[in-house]
């Protein structure tokens, strides 16, 4: 069974694809007044922050919000972060290599003639 996202209240969509909302099982007991106990992950899994791992609490959530099927009722696109390749900005030499001194042959203009 999956969560029917249209039944959620106090919904906040996070950048990483998670949905944070008021937990209906907590709300039935006059709890979760801030409305942020329930987390629904992009793959359809869900958890209540106040009752982590409590199977009976999760069953209550499914009874209140559930619908048949195996995935969330809505999908939200997740934008991938693309980091461009870095390049050399300034080459300053290598360790142990000294810069040519001014007036040395390497730095002077060749004389013709």
Short summary of the structure?
With about 110 residues, the chain is an alpha+beta fold. It is built from 2 helices and 6 strands. The radius of gyration is 30 Å and the shape is rod-shaped.
Which helices and strands appear, and what pairs or packs with what?
Layout: E1 2-3, E2 12-13, E3 19-21, H1 24-28, E4 38-40, E5 46-48, H2 55-65, E6 66-67
Antiparallel strand pairs: 1-6, 2-3, 3-4, 4-5
How would you sum up this structure, described in words?
This protein has helices at 24-28, 55-65, and strands at residues 2-3, 12-13, 19-21, 38-40, 46-48, 66-67. Strand 4 (38-40) and strand 5 form a beta hairpin. The chain has a domain at 2-67. A four-stranded antiparallel beta sheet has the order 2-3-4-5, with no helix packed on it. It is rod-shaped. With 113 residues, it is α+β, with helices and mostly antiparallel strands. Helices cover 14% and strands 13% of the residues. The model has no long low-confidence stretch (mean pLDDT 79).
